[in-house]
Amino acid sequence: MQPYELSLAAAADAIRARQLSPVELVDSVLGRLEKVEPLLDAYVTVAAEQARRSARAAEHDAAHGRYRGPLHGVPMGLKDLIDVAGWATTASSRVRADHRAQADSTVAARLTAAGAVLLGKTHTHEFAYGLTTPQTSNAWDRGRVAGGSSGGSAVAVAAGAATFSLGTDTGGSIRVPAALNGVVGLKPTYGLVPRHGVTSLSWSLDHVGPITRTVQDAALVLAVLTGHDPRDPASLATPAVDYRPGAGTDLTGLRIGLPRTYYFDHLDAQVEAAVRHAIGQLEALGARLVEIDIPMTRYIQPTLWGLVLPEATAYHERTLRTVPELYQADVRVLLEVGELMTAGDYLRAQRSRTLMREQWARILETVDVIAAPTVPMTAAAADQETVTWPDGTVEGVSDALVRLSAPANITGVPALSIPVGRDSAGLPIGMQLLGRPLGERALLRVGHAYEQTQPARALAPVA
């Protein structure tokens, strides 16, 4: 096995045991990146020599007993909404052509302090306003969408061009590309990870979280990212938590909510089969399945868009008026639509969110975790605009991709997407675990237990 194939946890163990140096790991990942990047276009920019300097510094520190923890010397990619001092934060947009960050974002500073090595910035759908990341190809099939908006981050991890990455999630933008590329994506509880220095799409829905190869890796990254930051008004003051899941797989006594409504409607048959089989595996580990009904389902997407549209337009108000021609057409149209929404529309969406949160809280008193598909289908063809379901319903691809991930953003509950198989075309399928606010430990425990019952996953065979 080459170093670039190692999970974060395995790489960390090897570095700590002095069996692998940060320089060897970073060189291996950069070599893989150089090979696959022309095929996938996951990165906006790569700073290979800077990464090698950071790796040498990490190696020197480790040799002198200054080991900073499991991220020490591990190479990462950051979604290009996340500020790093001296780097451009382009948001994959011509609007930001001359941008340079003056200071690190909170998450970038914490990762650097933990010893992680930045390889480069990864592509996003322009300003995170979309579900496909059109610049980037799916790691398993270059003719298909990567998912979005954190498509570059997920593809880099899936292809071995980063050991881990960070994405952002406003309506599913970590979990969707994670599911479509066969990796793990965690959207934490709203406010758990500070967003200072991260370009906003919709401030009341935005989250930052890790994309990794394994659930254990996600736990290691999350532990570094959390902690109150007063510069983010939504940031939570929470005690330090050890998120690492235990080695056991016994889920006896755990109650898993199995939705009767919404999550299994308009779903690809192979996706449904894979997710239900994975839920069966959790039951075999001792979990008890409890059927539940998802509340207010007809209001989910109207509520999401009722919040995103006006908040995004408010954020972009100045540049939308001064340089509208610099936006891609799909994003510009959404921003212009946001200008047509009234204050009443926005307040009704806020009220709907409040009611939805209250009803979800009641459901989560009766179960510990909810299990459901992450997205209703595998990756669509890059030129595919709609999907037709067996009952004749036609749905836009972006609407389909956001449909099952949106509830966790509206309610702010944590959600973890894990790979649970592939379809007949070899495309990855994801299962989503949702939990109580600040219930990340339970999600990670369940996801890790499931992983232990499965063969080790290989990287995407990019060709």
TrEMBL record:
Nuclease found in the keyword field: no
Keywords tagged on the record: Ligase, Transferase
SUPFAM superfamilies recorded: Amidase signature (AS) enzymes
EC numbers: 6.3.5.6, 6.3.5.7
A molecular function GO annotation: glutaminyl-tRNA synthase (glutamine-hydrolyzing) activity
Domain Amidase per the UniProt entry, residue ranges: 24-444
Protein name: Aspartyl-tRNA(Asn)/glutamyl-tRNA(Gln) amidotransferase subunit A
Annotated source species: Kitasatospora kifunensis
